[in-house]
Amino acid sequence: MPYSFDYQGGAPAPIGHDGEWVEILGMTCSTFVLGLFVTHDLPLLDITTWPKRQADQEWASELLVNYLVTVYDSQSEIERLQRAIPSCVRVRPEETAVAAKGLPTSRPYAFADVEPPSQALAEQLVAHASESRASLRPSDADERAT
């Protein structure tokens, strides 16, 4: 299954009850996880509540131009993805992580339920990555020794 934004994480399920993929061009890591839950009738998210965010449409455009055109051989598949960009709804990895962990409200979770804790998670991950990068920098003593 190629990496793509074609499947957005809701119904219908991306995997049939026979285990076969349905007619989708690809999935992101997040939508793969969401699709597994949808396939087993345990949807984590109510995708209809997700907004169309300009940043996500820009992400889809960049992904198509910089990567997906090298993955798909068919011009019709590329055109299908181009047509999908204006309506692209992206479930970000941190949103899927929060939904998979669970919230006090009942599933499927709405965007309004998932957004605050997912933003907090994203901020924690950025802070952790910054701390990790800082710890990898050579100390002043190491630089003087070389």
Shape annotation: globular
Which class best fits the helix and strand makeup?
Answer: mainly alpha
Instruction: Provide the residue-averaged pLDDT.
Output: 85
- Low-pLDDT windows of residues: none
Largest sheet: none
In DSSP terms, counting alpha (H) and pi (I) runs of 4 or more, how many helices? 6
Please give the number of β-strands. 0
* Helix content percent band: 40-55%
List the secondary-structure elements in sequence, H or E: HHHHHH
Query: For the terminal residues, how far apart are their CA atoms?
Result: 48 Å
- Total domains: 1
- What integer value in Å does the Rg equal? 19 Å
Report the portion of residues in β strands: under 5%
